[in-house]
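just leaving the lab so this will be short. below you get a single protein, a line of residues and a line of whole numbers that encode the local backbone shape. id like you to explain what the token line says about the fold, in plain words if possible. thanks a lot i owe you, the record is right below:

…
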Amino acid sequence: MKSAIVPKSAVAKKTLIIGAGVGGQRVIREIQARFRNKYHIVGILDDDPTKKGREILGVPVLGPIDEIKTVVKETGAEHAIIAIPSATGKELSRIVNLCEEAGIDYNIVPGVYDFISGRAVVSSPIRKVSFEDLIKRKPVHMDIEEIRSFISGKRVAITGGAGTIGSEIVRSIIELETELILVIDVNENSLMELLWEPKIRSGVKKGVVIPMIADIRNMRRMSRIFSEFNPHIVYHAAARKHVPLMELFPEEAVETNVIGTYNMLGISEESGVETFVLISTDKAVNPTNVMGATKRMAELLAKEYSLRGNVNSISVRFGNVLGSAGSVINLFRKQIERGGPVTVTDPEIKRFFMSISEAARLVIQCSAFRENGHTYVLEMGEQIKILDIAERMIKLAGFEPYEDIEIKFIGLRPGEKMYEELYYPYEEKKSTKHPYIFKVLSDRRWPNYIEDIKALRKYVDDMDIPAIINKIKEVVPEFKYDNTKFEKRVRCIV
């Protein structure tokens, strides 16, 4: 007796498409053409009341997204594909919560945010929703023509060019008709990984992108590079940035973040650089750690050089970048993969977050303003509780916090704050023509920077940590230093 043939729809997942717009229609077409054996579409949910009861590509619109629990019971749906290109992180969080309440599995299509431009299809495997998706904000508008007119035909140098922000700046400007992009980094492995990206590799072959292994602390080396290539614009992203490690080794933070920045500003001035952009951090405001204090010193250096009048020097200050090296997101992901525990310093600790591409694009936009001496601050939205991130990431991985995966509170590490700040009380916040960018004005100066840098060089050479800390306090009086002993600091870094 022949065995019965099981229809494809019987083995395919009963699936709801969330979103009846362009993104949803693209998903439906692709599934109907190529993935019928994997997904059996039972309906569409969309918040547009005029679409309810209609059929789109033969699939009925069953109602608004809020009714997903009822629709799941009526249709037996076991899976949802979220396909709303315009959804912000807040809106996506709402949809994810509704899916979880309905007891339904959910996915998002890779590149779903590109559907509206026609650049993406459902040819890639559908993936899980990530935490990065949930905090996605509305797309950042860039004045491409203003940026193109600023950067076209120019030679651009990016220090820390293989790092998180530096490499994204490279990706963002490579198609803006630059004459040359000099990618400077001390990390050869990261640099090679960047160079093997198809778009960057093409730039290398065309002679537009030039890699350079070099350390900003080596002034002679950097001087030779700048005298050979004569860049017009410098994006200075190279820095020591790991807070706990810089608490252990303040001399390293000073040598890179302060002396290295001083080197780059001086070399830029000597070689005729037109615009110098310092990548700063929210940790530079009322710093409680060496990293933040040294970045504040770098901001003050940029201001002093702007006042000399030979180079247009600005600083751009923003918070944590999702996916960056050392990001808490990456740490939590690895801890969840190992089965926990997920370690959180304090249940109330908060941080600002933004995407890598958003941060890089806004930095470039700031540079195109062609204003001198300002510190720009990127609009970061609301601070997010780190505990909320941990709980959400555990749920997104398919586990229950505290039941399947333990969350362990380990206490604040040396130098850590409960929350970050973007402005000093004495800074005057002013809007710019870009809604996500503000500039701050203040009369704070570092008048004795030449003598102080000379002293800091000696303290670093002598490994005189108390003298280094005292000098930082002189320059940044708001700096609150944690005097925890070295041995305890070591035990607290992870």
Summary: Residues 1-9, 112-125 have pLDDT under 50 and may be disordered.
